Amino acid sequence: FEAQNEFSRYAFYHYDMDEQLMDRLVLEHDLHKALDKGELYLYYQPQVNLREGRIVSLEALIRWKHPERGWVSPGEFIPIAEETGLIVPIGEWVLRTACKQLKHWHNQGFSDLSVAVNLSTRQFFQRNLVDLVEDSLKKANLPPRYLELEITESMTMNVSYATDILAELKRLGVRIAIDDFGTGYSSLYYLKDLPIDCVKIDRSFVRHVRTNKHDAALIAMIISIAKHLELTVIAEGVEQVDQLEFLWKEHCHQVQGYLFSPPASSERLSAEYEELQQQSKIYCDQLKHVQ
Ligand code: C2E
Ligand code: MG
Ligand code: MG
Ligand code: MG
After folding, report:
1. Has this prediction a pTM greater than 0.90?
2. Which residue's alpha carbon is at the smallest distance from atom 34 of ligand 1?
3. Residue 75: nearest ligand to its CA?
4. What is the pLDDT of residues 134-156, one digit of tens each?
5. Atom of ligand 1 nearest to the CA of 263
6. Closest-approaching ligand to the CA atom of 116
């Protein structure tokens, strides 16, 4: 009896693995065609400067509308794209599309707005990265200061490579942010040497900031260090007013999260931009009364 049970569990396990593997292969196969078939979209999420009380930047976030599965999250397909190398053409499309879209928004009068683009590891180590960034800006006729590139801590582990490539990117005039800060193998020591402009505090720290003293202490510390290094600090994943109040009291520069807006399509963002700006202003004006 025991043995049979064992066996069925074993068989089930294998069946499950096959299913998962098949699923992944199918997804990988579909992803190969997604770009050409126009199934990829960029959504944009506002980043709000608390002191100015306005949206200063938009983070471009990729979306895949699969013909049968519907929306597939980037958490699911970015790793596949990364492993297969598909991230290279996809990443190029993201960069070019984001630059063109921002230029379009500037022309529409959304002035002084920047765009943030996530770079994948493979892209970061791609030999033509600097040329690609330069060409994307040129083709879109976008001044470089409006583009921010988001990298993660793990990409900077090869410090000399990271320092060189980031310096080249900075020479173009773009800004560099470290995404998901605090979750990777960061060394505070290198933070001072890397030519970066901004750190984005990971939302896992923000989530429990009002209930967990340790999270609160870590955020306060990250903000303080970043400020001393003259870096801009953005907190990710702000969903609640009390989280916002905490970040304001700690003098965090910018926030991003569902409280202000979820990521939205370019059409929707265009339509709701003025309203979102006003809403941001109202939230930030209320903060001025927070002790
Ligand atoms: P990320 O760069 O850290 O992006 C922030 C993620 O947090 C986004 O998830 C966003 O939708 C989500 N988010 C924003 N505000 C809130 C909030 O208040 N609460 C919660 N719970 N979540 C919030 P998304 O769009 O699913 O993207 C996940 C990750 O996929 C990104 O994390 C980024 O690492 C990667 N990714 C997205 N687009 C691209 C891309 O174009 N290229 C590359 N290489 N990676 C991308
Ligand atoms: Mg990001
Ligand atoms: Mg990330
Ligand atoms: Mg992040």
Report:
1. yes
2. 118
3. 1
4. 999 999 999 999 999 999 999 99
5. 11
6. 2
